[in-house]
Write a structure and sequence with these properties.
Largest sheet: none
Strand content: under 5%
Low-confidence stretches: none
Mean pLDDT: 92
Helix content: over 70%
Length: 374
């Protein structure tokens, strides 16, 4: 299992005690060793997977820049290799059970071998970071980093497990610059860490153990009002839990001299589904926009093409969150709402109707509706 809070605090103190006494290259070696120790503490066997992903993606990026082979073919190899590894570990079981249940409904049976595969912690996050690195190198927006810096970038322990999804262009330049402890905003870093711990322990864990888990495990034992309270409590729990990890990751990274992008911005204050996705898991939203939605064509084609691109992006985004049809449905539902919002805007523009006045009452109503849709 991964560290508990006290073990992680002790681990961080040891790293910091050594970190600022070293020069830049030695600091990066220490970060790599600490990150691999952190990941290996959960299951040492998956260190090889993380190291293999590092070497594979670095080799592809270097080959792309040397242009001794078709860059587009190399990019395709890089993207396919990352997605195949992710698909095997995260989606193989989902694929097998879907094939079995689907063929049984059709009156015959096809049963691929069901393997006992352990899902590596953080594989979705470091795979998306690796993809962004290779794609940005191909696009000419990022220079190839040293193998050491890229290895630290992919394995960086503050956000390895639960994000945020940090792009190479955001973190790799910081890897190459000296980190001066006198320029660290320690006050903000400790504030974020303490706020994160408070969200996790005081709010998320309390709601889970006292309200949510029981309501979802045995709903028949509770009244309708109690189940409704359980649903609202889960909405608070999932936000507090997820944003807590982001706060702690950003704070720990800041103690080490790195600036991470924010991942949440009051998402339950959103006034539309589009606004919600600008506030919730923002690093994932931007990743899906830049590496999936825009390459599909974005909104540059007809309305139907834009709707298709929105639906595909959200369905695949839902599947990224988890390997089950409920996540596919959840992504499709958000895609439908985004299409509906775009359609309403287009119809208003086509008929020359002005945008509704942004009054306080209307803003409150839109927030309530958006929250309940989410």
């Amino acid at each position: 299992m991964l560290f508990n809070s006290f073990a992680f605090a002790a681990f961080l103190v040891v790293v910091l005690a050594l970190y600022y006494s070293l020069r830049l290259r030695a600091q990066n070696f220490l970060l790599l060793a600490a990150s691999y120790f952190f990941y290996g503490y959960w299951d040492y066997r998956f260190i090889a997977l993380l190291a293999g992903s590092t070497l594979f993606n670095q080799a592809v990026a270097v080959a792309i820049t040397r242009r001794r082979f078709a860059p587009r073919a190399l990019l395709a190899i890089g993207v396919a290799g990352n997605l195949l590894v992710l698909a095997f570990f995260k989606y193989y079981g989902f694929f097998v059970t879907s094939v079995v249940s689907g063929t049984e409904r059709l009156g015959f049976s096809v049963a691929p071998p069901l393997l006992d595969i352990i899902l590596p912690v953080g594989i979705s996050f470091f795979t998306f970071q690796a993809l962004s690195y290779v794609i940005d190198v191909f696009r000419g927006r990022l220079e190839v980093a040293s193998t050491l810096d890229f290895a630290v970038y992919l394995a960086f322990f503050p956000q390895l497990v639960a994000g945020p999804i940090v792009r190479g262009s955001e973190l790799l330049p910081q890897m190459a610059r000296p980190r001066d402890p006198r320029r660290i905003d320690a006050t903000r870093a400790f504030y974020l860490i303490l706020i994160g711990l408070g969200k996790k322990i005081v709010i998320a864990d309390f709601l889970a153990s006292n309200v949510v888990d029981a309501a979802f495990a045995t709903p028949g034992q509770f009244s309708s009002l109690e189940l409704l309270i359980g649903l609202y409590a889960y909405s608070v729990q999932i936000y507090a839990d997820f944003s807590a990890y982001a706060d702690i990751a950003i704070g720990v990274a800041q103690l080490l001299g790195f600036k991470f992008p924010d991942n949440f911005n009051s998402p339950y204050a959103a006034v539309s589904i589009q606004d919600f996705w600008r506030r919730w898991h923002m690093t994932l939203s931007r990743w899906l926009r830049d590496y999936l939605y825009i390459p599909l064509g974005g909104n540059r084609g007809s309305s139907l093409v834009t709707y298709r691109n929105l639906m595909l992006t959200m369905v695949l985004g839902g599947l990224w969150h988890g390997a089950s049809w409920t996540f596919v449905f959840w992504g499709g539902l958000h895609g439908f709402w985004l299409v509906w919002e775009h359609r309403r805007g287009e119809l208003r523009e086509r008929h020359g109707l002005p945008a509704p006045a942004d009054t306080p009452g209307r803003r409150v109503a839109r927030r309530v509706i958006t929250f309940h849709l989410v």
